[in-house]
Amino acid sequence: MKSTLTSPTSGERDGEISAVPFFDQSETFRRIWPEIRSNCIRVLDDGKFSHGTAVADLERALERYTGARHAVGVNSGTDALVLLLRAAGLRPGEEVIVPAYTFAASATAVVHAGGVPVFADIEEHGYGIDPDSVAAAVTDRTRMVMPVHLFDRLADLRGVHRVARTHGLTVVEDSAEAVGMRAGGAHAGLSGAGGVLSFFPAKTLGAVGDAGALLTDDDAVAETARMLRHHGRSGRTLAAFPGISNPTVVTGGNSKMDDLQAAVLLAKLDRLDTDIERRAVLSRRYDDRLRGLPGVRSVPGDLPVRPGENRVVYVHLIEVDDRDGLAARLADAGIGTEVYYPRPLHLQPCFAHLGYRAGDLPRAEAACRSALALPLYADLSESAVDRVCDEIARHLTGGSR
Ligand SMILES: *Cc1c(COP(=O)(O)O)cnc(C)c1O
Fold first, then answer.
1. What are the b/e assignments for 118-127, b being 16+ CB within 10 Å?
2. Residue whose CA is closest, atom 7 of ligand 1?
3. Is the CB of 198 under 6 A from ligand 1?
4. I need a labelling partner for 227 at 20 to 30 A (CA). Which of 88, 164, 278, 372 fits?
5. Strand order in 70-74's β-sheet?
6. How many domains does the chain have?
7. Residue 4 has pLDDT above 70, yes or no
8. Helices (H) and strands (E) in the chain, counts
């Protein structure tokens, strides 16, 4: 976020299109500054920066928005995943199947919860975990499977649940990117034991620092997560969790959400659906402008939406063969892009001990080579989208600037 609160819509300066940053929400802040300010001042006057009312208010608002029985506010999407895995009953050494193509937290959370990540490939068409690859990865130590909803749509939950039922696995969702995404009216994160939300600043609903939430319809999962986020405390005692015998699993920590973050999020939540609609408009414009260009695939417009699902474009992804060349060209032109994700998790050094080799999960590896995220946020202008597309077209058709 830029420091000024009065700058015009991103990518537009005096009618001239200048730089297009990958992410910028200064206009959003300018617009809702009064609400954010009064919410924050209430917290400051109240003096309750932790265990205050803002976090509880946000939790109730998230329950209304998502339809979850419980929303548990925590300090990040990553910790929400750790708490979810532990509260859903993961025991030390048990395996959790996660996609190899996702943000690191999906797999590192498994490690922090005492488990072992096992990697599956993604679908042939799409970026969700492939149910067949999940079935092939099941062992007698497998306890859970974690579909991750990336970019603009849900993973194949129906397919994942079919495999989970066959093998008696618990489904936990990494829905960190999926605020607003629903299937058959049910919000992301609620198809199994629970899911998470991330409020990292660049996410669709972003705080002014780190924050996250756990979503669940399961009373026991919610109660355990609430204790785990606060040292395992239940009143003045440190709880022993029913059915979990290993102390490394029951010991709580500090994963609480700051009330100031909750105050900001409460103000931004009111605008969330408007922002989601704006993202859709801009994403369709990218689709329309990029369609038919040689050597590029505009992912949101290209992949069919599964019946009953709505789409929320958190990231507008394109696939290009010469991804790094295009990213460099756009950077030269002052256009920010991001590579989600540069290296598949099974080939990351921190998981080398698991023994995976290049070629083991080819679709995940290919996605890491060709995917590029374009600027997309509510404050972006149509003319900025056009400028990005013009630059892409010039690059792909061999034109010079
Ligand atoms: C952002 C993200 C997370 C982690 O959330 P933080 O709030 O940054 O800890 C986890 N998984 C996915 C898929 C994400 O995009």
1. bbbbbbeebb
2. 77
3. yes
4. 164
5. 70-74, 212-216, 194-198, 170-173, 142-145, 95-99, 116-120
6. 2
7. no
8. 14, 14
| Domain boundary, last residue among 268, 292, 310 | 268
Rounded to the nearest integer, the mean pLDDT of the chain is: 91
Question: Which residue, 268, 303, 321, sits at the end of a domain?
Answer: 268
| 140 & 240 share domain | yes
- Quote the ligand 1 centre to 369 CA distance (angstroms): 21
164-174 pLDDT tens trace: 999 999 999 99
Find, among 200, 196, 218, the residue nearest to 210 by Cα.
200
Q: Ligand 1: distance of its center to the CA of 87 in Å?
A: 18
Q: Specify the ligand 1 atom closest to the Cα of 203.
A: 1
- Same domain? 181 vs 327: no
Ligand 1 pocket member 340 (CB < 6 A): no
268 is catalytic: no
> Is 127 in the same domain as 258?
yes
- Same domain assignment for residues 233 and 283: no
Indicate if 313 and 173 belong to the same structural domain: no
- Cβ atoms of 106 and 347 closer than 8 Å: no
**Which one-letter amino acid corresponds to residue 20?**
V
* pLDDT, tens digit, 9 for 90 and up, residues 74-113: 999 999 999 999 999 999 999 999 999 999 999 999 999 9
Against a cut of 0.85, is the pTM above it? yes
Q: For residue 2, what pLDDT is reported?
A: 41
Q: Token pair for residue 339?
A: 């590579």
Quick one: what percent of the chain has pLDDT higher than 90? 80
Is 227 near ligand 1, meaning CB less than 6 Å away? no
Tell me if 375 CB under 6 Å of ligand 1.
Answer: no
- Domain residue limits at 154: 34-268
Query: Do 192 and 173 touch, CB atoms closer than 8 A?
Result: yes
Question: Pick the catalytic residue: 48, 203, 256, 268?
Answer: 203
pLDDT beyond 90 at 187: yes
**CA 196 / ligand 1 centre spacing (Å):** 9
The reply to whether 201 and 66 lie within a common domain is yes
Query: Which value, to the nearest 10 degrees, does the dihedral of the CA atoms of residues 337, 342, 345, 349 take?
Result: -130
98 and 243 belong to one structural domain: yes
- What pLDDT does 400 receive? 57
